[in-house]
């Protein structure tokens, strides 16, 4: 395939919270799907490249009212929980896992069921503009591998983990690894199989070492997984200090905080992403900084299970890497747009407080609010940084992952009737008001993976 060209106005954040708008940008993309150049109309080479683009049959040109955004990066999805999205959100975490989630995940012993659900989920996430996903699968080897294959085939950049949960006292007989040895062997062969698969996938698929969370794993399993992560230099994901119960449980069992335990077992490094992290303190934050570990902030899920609001602003000021996660199905919505909105709303409630019986000066946590542009950064640039991959920002050497947003779709029009026309205002309206109908096309690594214009 020769050079591809994309012309249109674009929004992205080169760094956290720093918005860049380029009107009528012209992107050239190489045969690997990487951005080569981004030209503005004032650049000397613009006219020449535009002439080449017009002569090419690989030219995408946006109309008035259409915009490019970077593809979104979802740092926390439980793929097997997709059938449960929107259900059973009234129980606390431990009950929710035991009564609803473990019986559902056990069904993925049936690989045909797994393929049906995973095909639907991957297509659905792509249609919502999500181009990269960090997935938990289940304990099942075959079904987990099927998820990686489906990502590969549908053109999504998938990072997939076969879940490890081996502790007899914490996991039911019908859904548990049989032994430490078996869970480590299976993880190692899964890593090798996904690495092999990834060789033929343009956008990349990656294996992820995935202890479910400290409460579900033996010390031997955690140590073995830490060693495997190091041996193969692969990503690691887990849940860390999510709820009051999960946080206290780890302290009771190990006499240490969740972060310290994960670090002691060699599970925190530059390619590690920990979900939730609600009960982190500053000393935990320092360990995150030293090891390069990132946070997957899951604001909708946190409303149900975390017993708290994660202080995004505080930990960004400490310097932590951070992105957004939907946490399907702890979070009901598969949409990162919805999670961007909730991240802003939750931060505002954290800042203002919620109990009017407390005086206004003591009601909230000062300096907690984040802007919608900062939340957009988390869903794009922050996610890429968390995964240590060249994604989420539109610049040379980065993957050409794009969503085409059309603000002129019938019955889904996003308009200020000429009143709010500054670029940042246009982006704010897109982030708050866009529906699935406004996401017309999605491109991953230069491949078209979703096309509403074709009635997909
Ligand atoms: N902690 C352990 N497992 C899970 C899970 O599946 N979802 C959430 N939200 N938290 C967990
Ligand atoms: Fe989760």
TrEMBL record:
Q: What does this protein do?
A: Catalyzes the hydrolytic deamination of guanine, producing xanthine and ammonia.
InterPro entries, alphabetized: Amidohydro-rel (IPR006680), Guanine_deaminase (IPR014311), Metal-dep_hydrolase_composite (IPR011059), Metal_Hydrolase (IPR032466), Metallo-dep_hydrolases (IPR051607)
Q: Which domain of life is it from?
A: Bacteria
One cellular component (GO) term of this entry: cytosol
**Pfam families linked:** Amidohydro_1 (PF01979)
The UniProt entry's GO biological process terms, in alphabetical order, are:
guanine catabolic process
CC cofactor: Zn(2+)
The family line of this record is:
Belongs to the metallo-dependent hydrolases superfamily. ATZ/TRZ family.
Catalytic activity reported = guanine + H2O + H(+) = xanthine + NH4(+)
- Entry's cofactor comment: Binds 1 zinc ion per subunit.
Alphabetic keyword roster: Hydrolase, Metal-binding, Zinc
This protein's pathway reads: Purine metabolism; guanine degradation; xanthine from guanine: step 1/1
Do you know which NCBIfam families this protein is assigned to? guan_deamin
UniProt entry tagged with the keyword Hydrolase:
yes
Q: Which residues form the Amidohydrolase-related domain?
A: 69-449
The molecular function terms of the Gene Ontology recorded here are: guanine deaminase activity; zinc ion binding
E.C. number(s) listed in UniProt: 3.5.4.3
Protein name per its UniProtKB record: Guanine deaminase
